[in-house]
Amino acid sequence: MKAVFRHELSSYFRNMTGYLFIGFLLLFVGVYSYVYNIQNSLSNFEYVLSGMSFVFLLIIPVLTMGVIADEKRRNTDQLLYSLPLSMTEVVLGKYFAMLTVLLIPTVIICIYPLILNLFGNVYLMKTFGAIIGFFFLGAALIAVGMFVSSLTESPAVAAGICFLLLLLNYFMSSLSGYLPATATPSLIALTALVLITALIIWLMTRSVIAAGIFAAAGVSILVILYLVNATWFAGLFPKIMSGLSLFERFNSFVDGVFDVKALIFYLTVCVLFVFLSIQSMDKRRWS
Q1: pTM
Q2: Mean pLDDT of the chain
Q3: Which of 91, 110, 120, 168 is deepest in the core (most CB within 10 A)?
Q4: 60 close to 145: Cβ distance less than 8 angstroms
């Protein structure tokens, strides 16, 4: 795993990807810090992180698009399969390399509130709590992007799909407010979600049986629960949509709450999508 980690990390700085990622992140932090903290004379540096979290929509797809897809496109993934390493070690090596690229600007960002504190009273505990939340938000988004990259052989397609998914997640909490709160629309939406998940299972396993069983079981359970008590579904899908928003959970850190539940949620997303990436690589290995 260390060899994969070193190779991947160095590759980000042999081309412009790592420099662009770090440069854009620090550029936007600098611009937002100037606008929020200096021009408006505010000491809340966490507002900067809240305002610029949308930058992840642009730079995460660039960082993750080729991590696995480019290997498939050039057929260099066959070399990975020949190494005396498990796919778990390969994927973790790639993932930790991307986390390191994210960690570099995050550490530099920690200097900003210290400088601002020289000229005012910055709430350092609140600020550094927000920076930790910001890093874990980025880590979760990177895991999602890596999984998307594992599903295609085109880095451009991976970047496009990743951007759309992150964009949907960014506006998910706002969109949930426009969804009907009655039971039947929630049942229909959850059924669609089950079918989409079954499609993902088919894409990963190419097993119609596995995807069909999951879809049939999921839809059957939803219908049975709806028939037993339809009121359970009233407002359920909007709540689920809002709860799945990675960006929305970051707001608690901005509000000064060190949200352990949000950190656990981010870690769960990281573990889940890293696991799915491993399974996707294993599927290609034995196909």
Answers
A1: 0.88
A2: 85
A3: 91
A4: yes
**C-alpha span between 145 and 94 (Å, rounded):** 12
Backbone angles phi, psi at 255, to 5 degrees: -80, 0
Residue 287 has pLDDT above 60, yes or no: no
Contact indicator for 104, 22 with CB cutoff of 8 Å: yes
Give one DSSP letter per residue of 203-250, joined into a string.
Answer: HHH--HHHHHHHHHHHHHHHHHHHHH-GGGGTTHHHHHHHHT-HHHHH
- The sign one gets for the Cα dihedral 255, 256, 257, 263 is positive
Tokens of 167: 């964009």
